[in-house]
Specification:
Blueprint: E1 2-3, E2 6-14, H1 18-28, E3 31-34, E4 40-41, E5 44-45, E6 47-48, H2 54-73, H3 80-84, E7 89-91, H4 93-102, H5 105-136, H6 146-150, E8 155-163, E9 181-184, H7 192-196, E10 202-210, H8 214-223, E11 227-228, H9 238-268, H10 276-296, E12 300-301, E13 305-313, H11 317-327, E14 332-336, E15 348-349, H12 358-364, E16 366-367, H13 379-389, H14 393-409, H15 414-437, H16 447-450, H17 455-463, H18 472-500, H19 504-529, H20 534-554, H21 562-574, H22 582-590, H23 593-616, H24 623-655, H25 659-662, E17 665-667, E18 680-682
Parallel strand pairs: 7-18
Antiparallel strand pairs: 1-15, 2-13, 2-14, 3-13, 4-5, 6-12, 8-10, 8-11, 9-10, 12-13, 16-17
Helix pairs in contact: 1-10, 2-5, 2-9, 2-10, 4-10, 5-9, 13-15, 13-23, 13-24, 14-15, 18-19, 18-22, 18-23, 19-20, 20-21, 23-24
């Protein structure tokens, strides 16, 4: 239940054995290989090891090409579980070997390239045809042949749209209209009379004019808002051309349909060893080969030797050394503790029962190697916060059932399984706090909904301890009290972190002084809200003064001058500098009001749907059906929204108001070289 200790391992092997060495390390899957900087030892010269990843890169590109084509025409249908998060393929070494032997990657790649070329060219031609049809449609019904537009020697013609309100501007007695002619060509579904009734309507018109007047007419047309229709450079009849284009369009769409059928066959496979799954396994295989080659490049070589270094978990050292002695007896292996200056990755080991919350730690960022894992310390508070925010017995049962189902289906997927068990445990917590606050689908237990003496009413009366809606102030005080306790718990963990680093001044100044100061502040504040004995108030003053003096003299300890140190200490009380602050404490504590707010919201929304359903219950014949329908839809909606809100806000109380007191994350995870990735994992014997 801690950060696993790592050992730094350096291997000096023969140069001829480097590829076999990397392959064995990869197969064992326990060592993360790191870069070795340029090494110069007693006149010996080493250089970075070079290798070629072109074969792996080429095969990965071929696989990606086939998969991209397959995803266009046969996208994978994700299951409910897979829709939550991408799941790796679980395979075996036998299946990997079979995919390598039986799947003809080069042949299928060439076939996919041919299909893609047909598809891309057909798509391009279809786009061109559709564009041409769109150009022809505005003039397909004009009563003249395009031959007349292109065969005139002295006259030009233009066709386009003119705003109806601008037609009156055209005056045949004024230049340049004196030698021009025009005619309205309304479309079939828009008569002249219909168009003239619309203020913003445009009507199609054709203009004829001498070519010598082209510039003047062009300017005049711009003044009346003329929008020219670009005519095709063809002389055949437009309707016949459109019919011809539509026939071609059908042919090319049929080609794409044929490509789609062939791609689906490619994705499904005609025999064992073909299809999408072996492609994904092959991609994982070649990605692993590439990773092995890149890992080898992190080592250095001399004339006779090859040197590589990395990290291994202390518990795996025995397995690793046994492999080295068995397969590489000529190699020299040096094992040592990482130095304080090294950027050591982190691997966390948590018992199975506590493991789900590790997901939150990983989301925020892993702890520093020489720090401690916060996962065990947020088991109670996270589930408690979630249960209070989502406090409803029936919703909790629904969530627990969902979590149990996902847990049973995702045991081999560690990340998703952790999420499933968070839902399961959160559902159990919601059941407990829902029973204590008396919420069963809101107030569905009331006799007006389910009748006198119903089982929900009996259970509600038996377990209810406090009604947050009837005793809101008490519920608010409890929420704030939980906030205070969680803040003090965070400060205590800050002291624990300082103890691990042997920072005894940090324990006193950043922990103990704040606990004393804030305890005194709370006792003093109690006088404002309740009639407490003077002795308690005076004790609060004494604690506050003592703690504040300790903070004033220690919080600015990095400042060299005494006046500056004291000034820094005074400012630290507010929270501008230093490890904490009174304003931070007050603000963070008030954030725990969201526990009450979300718990009330869950119940109030449920009650609103109950009320809506109850109003429909007495409708003749269909009232009961509507009652059930509204309840089902309303409570499913509230279940989903409230569960999401409970998770997000509980996580926020951990990340901001709790982690902010003591935790610094951001360390990279320990990633040993091996086949298993987020893409594909090899099933171990016995799993």
């Amino acid at each position: 239940m801690a950060i696993e200790p790592l050992k730094k391992v350096t291997i000096v092997s023969t140069k001829q054995a480097n590829r076999r060495l990397i392959k064995s390390i990869n197969k064992l899957g326990v060592m993360e290989i790191i870069d070795i900087q340029d090494i110069q030892r007693e006149g010996l010269s080493f250089k970075n090891y070079k290798t070629n990843t072109s074969e792996a890169d080429t095969n990965i590109n071929k696989i990606d090409f086939i998969l991209n084509l397959v995803n266009i025409f046969a996208p994978e249908q994700d299951s409910f579980i897979k829709s939550l998060t991408p799941l790796p393929i679980v395979t075996t070494e036998t299946e990997v070997d079979r995919a390598l032997k039986e799947y003809n990657l080069d042949k299928n790649y060439r076939y996919a390239v041919e299909l893609d070329e047909i598809y891309r060219s057909s798509e391009r031609i279809i786009a061109e045809i559709e564009n041409e049809i769109e150009e022809l449609k505005p003039v397909m019904d004009i009563p003249v042949d395009l031959e007349e537009f292109y065969s005139t020697k002295w006259v030009s013609m233009k066709i386009g749209y003119v705003p109806v309100k601008n037609i009156l501007i055209i005056d045949e007695k004024e230049e340049p209209w004196t030698d021009a002619a025009w005619e309205e060509l309304p479309e079939a579904n828009n008569t002249k009379e219909t168009m003239r009734k619309k203020d913003d309507a445009k009507i199609r018109m054709v203009f004829a004019f001498f070519k010598r007047d082209g510039e003047a007419i062009k300017k005049a047309l711009e003044e009346i808002g003329f929008e020219e229709i670009q005519l095709p450079k063809r002389k055949e009849k437009i309707k016949e051309r459109i019919l011809e284009l539509e026939a071609d369009l059908g042919q090319y769409r049929e080609k794409i349909a044929q490509v789609a059928d062939k791609v689906r066959e490619l994705s499904q496979g005609q025999r064992e060893g073909e299809g999408r799954r072996p492609l994904m396994i092959l991609k994982a295989y070649w990605t692993n080969i590439r990773n092995r080659q890149l890992a080898a490049m992190k080592g250095v070589e001399g004339k006779w030797v090859y040197i590589i270094s990395g990290y291994i978990k202390a518990k795996d050292i025995g397995t690793f050394t046994a492999m080295m002695e068995r397969e590489f007896p000529e190699s020299v292996v040096t094992i040592e503790d990482p130095s304080p200056e090294e950027d050591v990755p982190v691997s966390i080991s948590v018992p199975y029962l506590l493991r789900p919350i590790q997901l939150l730690t990983e989301m925020f960022g892993l702890p520093q190697y020489r720090s401690f894992d916060p996962t065990p310390f947020m088991q109670v508070n996270f589930y408690m916060f979630f249960g209070i925010c989502f406090s409803d017995v029936c919703y909790g049962i629904m969530l627990a059932i969902l979590g149990a189902y996902l847990n049973s289906k995702t045991k081999i997927y560690r990340g998703v399984n952790n999420l499933a068990r968070i839902l399961l445990y959160g559902g159990i917590s919601s059941i407990i706090f829902g029973a204590l606050t008396g919420s069963w689908f809101g107030d569905l237990y009331k006799p007006e909904y389910l009748g006198e003496g119903n089982i929900l009413f009996t259970l509600q009366q038996k377990f209810v301890l406090i009604d947050p809606m009837g005793k809101t102030i008490i519920a608010l005080i409890i929420a704030l009290g939980l906030g205070v306790l969680n803040q003090f718990f965070g400060i205590t963990l800050k002291m624990y972190s300082a103890y691990q680093k042997r920072d005894y001044m940090g324990i006193f100044s950043d922990g103990l002084c704040w606990i004393v100061t804030l305890t005194g502040l709370l006792l003093m504040a109690g006088k404002v809200f309740a009639d407490i004995p003077s002795s308690i108030f005076n004790t609060g003053i004494a604690l506050f003064v003592a703690g504040s003096l300790g903070l004033i003299f220690t919080q600015g300890r990095e400042i060299k001058s005494i006046p500056g140190r004291i000034a820094g200490g005074v400012v630290s009380l507010y929270g501008i500098i230093g490890s904490y602050g009174i304003t931070s404490f007050i603000g963070d504590t008030l954030s725990y009001c969201r526990l009450l707010a979300l718990g009330l919201t869950t119940s109030i929304v449920a009650m609103a749907f109950n009320l809506m359903a109850g109003m429909l219950k007495d409708i003749p014949y269909i009232g009961f059906i509507l009652f059930i329908l509204v309840l089902a839809i309303g409570h499913i909606f509230n279940f989903l929204i409230s569960a999401l809100g409970a998770f997000v806000h509980s996580m926020r109380l951990i990340f901001v108001e709790f982690f902010g007191r003591f935790y610094e994350g951001g360390t990279r995870p320990f990633q040993p070289l091996g086949f298993d990735t987020n893409m594909c994992v090899i099933k171990k014997v016995g799993e």
